Model the fold of this input.
Amino acid sequence: MEEFEREQEALIANTYTRQPIMIVKGEGPWVWDRDGRKYLDCYSGIAVNNLGHCHPEVVKAIKEQAERLIHTSNIFYTEPQLVLAKVLARESGGYKSFFCNSGAEANEAAIKLVRKFAGPGEIITATDSFHGRTMATISATGQPKYQQGFEPLLEGFRHVPFGDAGAIEDVVTEETAAVMLEPIQGEGGVVVPPENYLKDVAAICEKKGVLLVLDEVQTGFGRTGEMFAWQGSGVDPDIFTVAKAMGGGMPIGAMLAKPGVMSAFEPGDHASTFGGNPVACAAAVASINVILKENLLERSRTLGEHFKAGLLELKPRHTEIRDVRGKGLMIGVEIEGDGAKIIEKAREQGLLFNCAHGNVLRFTPPLNIDRELIDRIVQTLDSILSEGI
Ligand SMILES: *Cc1c(COP(=O)(O)O)cnc(C)c1O
Done:
């Protein structure tokens, strides 16, 4: 065990299973550990570093804003918040924003807005979903492993199988408050629902007068090839939540709602001291501008297809590969057995990615990665699987 591991064990809550390296620097798709070893980063801080590390435009925006104003209170108006709200309204087609600092907080805000708007009815979510680690969001999350030991949970959630609109139709009534789903499940193992799933769910919600909430915390900002994944699905949710990639690495999240739904919130209903922090907002504006300027939505789509094709070529040769799936540059490779060994071998060869749901290798590289580097990832995986796991 290294010195920093021992120190950390003594000083920091033991809530994470960490990889045994200390990252000290990042640039583009690369990170370096403190021994100077370089890694290709397809972990991307769990789908946060969509622009790679320390994108110069984001760094510049942070520096400039930090020199002007780092923090004040939401009882005052601040310019970066307004600029960001305009950008988000433009990109979403008219949604209003509530700013916060993380995905869980964005979902908390969504759950509160649902209750304020629709009253105390149930919120239907999916099994194997992931919505965050606060009490309300673990209650929304459809995975017992995140809930055990923390009961009693918040009341009012019901879980149904993901990808099956009929399962929602079976339980939804006029009393239901909302249906809350990820467009593609991330922590659940990169699960892409059937083609018309969201459309069918939206039609059911419409018919019953039930709110549709989409958790875009992982899928947002180009990860799946759209600014927001719902834009490629033919639905427009009443509420959607974002965070992870929003601030180019800075902590920021938002709950966005159609104006008629957001109007259920009145002064005093919800708040966050740091929500809409000027530096985080400036970083988010810069980050969204880079996505547009560098054409990263298109790039996410074309590189994603290239990546999947490469992985599919490995499948016949490596029987451990059960499935290759995903959209844009959110890609999962389901394997037979334990993903942890593959993660470790890849790290030793200078490649970082993670494993969702125990056996799904999850690749979320920066959207501005090169085609050659994608090929290198496929080759590395090929050689690791060839050695046997
Ligand atoms: C990561 C994630 C969250 C939680 O976000 P935090 O910023 O960790 O609170 C919520 N929903 C989804 C879909 C996520 O991937």
Q: What stands out?
A: The chain has a mean pLDDT of 97. The first strand starts at residue 23 and ends at 27.
